Amino acid sequence: MGASIPRIVASAPVERTVAALNEHGAVIVEDVLDADLLARFNAEIDPILEGTSPERTYLNPAIAWFYGNRVRQITGVATRSRIFGHEILPHPFYAGVCGAILGASCSSWQLNVAQVMDRGPGADQQLLHRDEDVWVHLPRPHPEVQVASVIALVDFTAELGATVVAPGSHRWERGRTPLPEELACAEMPAGSAVVYLGSAIHAGGKNSTADRWRRGMHMSFVVGWLRTEENHYLSTPPEVARSLPRRSQELLGYAAHDAIAVGGGYLGAVDLLDPVELLAQAKL
Length: 284
Hints:
It is a single chain. By secondary structure, this protein is α+β, with helices and mostly antiparallel strands. About 30% of the residues lie in helices and about 20% in strands. The protein has helices spanning about 15-25, 35-50, 60-65, 75-80, 80-90, 90-100, 230-235, 240, 245-255, 275-280; strands at about 5-10, 25-30, 70-75, 110-120, 130, 145-150, 165, 185, 195, 200-205, 215-225, 255-260, 265. The strands form three sheets. Strands 1-2-9-6-11-4-3 form a seven-stranded mixed β-sheet. The chain is globular, with a radius of gyration of 18 Å. The termini are far apart.
């Protein structure tokens, strides 16, 4: 691997992160989660992961092959982690980046999926892929519809399986496969995130250690009119969403996507009303 990924600290002006994403398709941002937040989140999910087996079933055989049998996963994180739902999901860092990248193509953005992925010893490198390809029916070319990230919950090293990225691949023609020297390894300290566009080629790296798990969390956001990978209305049902901050409710899709002001329509209404208001009124 001979390429490199630019590095920025989370406290830097958001314009620097956005510029790096537009130029390189990916950027490592350090200190997205401060030491206290990181420690509390890890402590909260420790017992969940201890009770989670890497042997599980998936939606279809292709997804089972993609993940393999050496990864422990936590899905529906907003339901299973109060710290995620109250502090990480509505993190202001992501608001700034999503507003700049996605804001021109939607009236609001939403969480696509949050998933803790604890990749164990022997986990192979994933297939190199673009996250946005899950929306294969979306005509091309199109504006960026997704901002994604992998947050390091432990120090990420190449040996442990740090995320591999092909910088600049968001501008490549479809079908181009990166050469080994065009790949970069997102080695970074815990609390950092490699943030990338949905159009950037990347993969989870190979964990070549004998006894260490690479704990990270994928968290991605998409334009508010696009179907999300995770069904948040079922994984975080109203009785749970009701206890979350309003901004987290909105990001989970409990707010209507209202484009009336720009000549569009609305999506996601309940009884012709905004469901986030119905939550506030205890009517949902």
